[in-house]
């Protein structure tokens, strides 16, 4: 199975390629509208043929998009991370423009040499390149490329903020019409959060929360979970049933998050004086999923399973355990030799008339 990070990078790189390829097609159509029936470029005098140009432009812009997407995904995603969204987009746009201007100069030189059937450093070919660079056409191309870069980066930032799965659901309209589906939910709550906030102060506590959520995010995404919402110091994580059951992702996610915090324990103790820990409840059931809102749209879940999972998580303190899982979910999971199961009997959940079998898990 491909890792989440690899799939995420591929998704972003391909997204950039698609955006840039579409922008190339739009540019070719606009260029045709401007040049009309002309058979040459006014700036350089080079021959112009729409059929050849549209294919070449589409190919080149797609390749450039893949190059920019690769740079963004593999190397520059975290660049200017301390800046606001607007500042980040402005500075990255300028950086990418410098890179692309150099690439465009190289491509133009090659194109002129091919058209003129000469070598790259021929004076006539270089003269055509100088004419193009100093022409209004070149700067119009740069402005257009800047706009495409801004759109690409904005898409990338929104994708990271919402999560690729959520953004894709919005774009495809998957939940535009409400639908019923089975999902696994994990309600994860920080232990002794009120005490910690009072001890270190609310500003420092907020900075700790940012680091805490960041450290938990990678294991969640690695195990194909969707962060449904943050509620104070609580995270609600969701899986489509088959994804959560596959390789026991929902359970492995819990232990990977514990390991992530343990790995960073020294950092938390040094910076905040405390090392956060959490408890979690897991359950599954049917929910109705759909888009809601007018000014601010969101994809929400409604169903009894959310209330039940919250109640299960609240019983962790009573049973003095870090994880509680419902019997109905446990029956669907193949835990193999990953962990041992301990029955805690049946519990009546607050606000519900029926009792639910609960279990805790211990890694082997």
TrEMBL record:
PROSITE patterns: GUANYLATE_CYCLASE_2. Keywords: Membrane, Transmembrane, Transmembrane helix. One of its GO terms (biological process) is intracellular signal transduction. One of its GO terms (molecular function) is adenylate cyclase activity. Pfam families: Guanylate_cyc (PF00211). It comes from the Bacteria. InterPro entries: A/G_cyclase, Adenylyl/Guanylyl_Cyclase_3/4, Nucleotide_cyclase. The chain crosses the membrane at residues 9-30, 54-73, 94-116. Residues 184-313 form the Guanylate cyclase domain. This is Adenylate/guanylate cyclase domain-containing protein.
């Amino acid at each position: 199975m491909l890792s989440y990070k690899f799939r995420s990078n591929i998704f972003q790189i391909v997204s950039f390629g698609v955006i840039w390829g579409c922008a190339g097609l739009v540019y070719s159509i606009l260029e045709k509208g401007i040049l009309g029936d002309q058979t040459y470029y006014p700036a350089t005098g080079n021959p112009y043929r729409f059929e050849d140009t549209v294919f070449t432009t589409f190919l080149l812009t797609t390749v450039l998009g893949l190059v920019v997407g690769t740079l963004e995904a593999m190397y520059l995603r975290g660049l200017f991370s301390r800046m606001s969204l607007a500042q980040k987009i402005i500075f990255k746009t300028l950086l990418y423009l410098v890179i692309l201007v150099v690439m465009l100069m190289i491509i133009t030189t090659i194109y002129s040499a091919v058209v003129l059937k000469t070598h790259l450093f021929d004076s006539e070919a270089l003269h055509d390149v100088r004419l193009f660079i100093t022409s209004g056409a070149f700067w119009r191309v740069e402005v257009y490329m800047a706009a495409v870069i801004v759109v690409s980066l904005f898409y990338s930032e929104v994708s990271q903020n919402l999560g690729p799965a959520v953004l894709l659901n919005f774009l495809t309209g998957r939940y535009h019409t409400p639908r019923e589906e089975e999902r696994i939910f994990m309600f994860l709550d920080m232990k002794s959060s009120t005490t910690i906030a009072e001890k270190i102060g609310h500003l420092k506590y907020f900075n700790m929360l940012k680091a805490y959520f960041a450290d938990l995010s990678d294991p969640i995404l690695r195990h194909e979970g969707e962060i449904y919402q943050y509620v104070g110091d609580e995270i609600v994580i969701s899986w489509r049933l088959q994804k959560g059951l596959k390789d026991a992702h929902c359970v492995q996610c819990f232990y990977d998050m514990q390991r992530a915090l343990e790995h960073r324990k020294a950092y938390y103790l040094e910076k905040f004086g405390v090392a956060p820990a959490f408890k979690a409840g897991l359950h599954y059931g049917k929910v109705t999923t759909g888009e809601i809102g007018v000014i601010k749209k969101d994809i929400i879940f409604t169903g009894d399973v959310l209330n039940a999972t919250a109640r299960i998580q609240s019983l962790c303190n009573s049973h003095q355990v870090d994880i509680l899982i419902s019997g109905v979910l446990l029956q669907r999971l193949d835990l193999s030799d990953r962990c041992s199961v301990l029955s805690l009997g049946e519990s009546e959940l607050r606000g519900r008339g029926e009792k639910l079998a609960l279990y805790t898990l211990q890694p082997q």
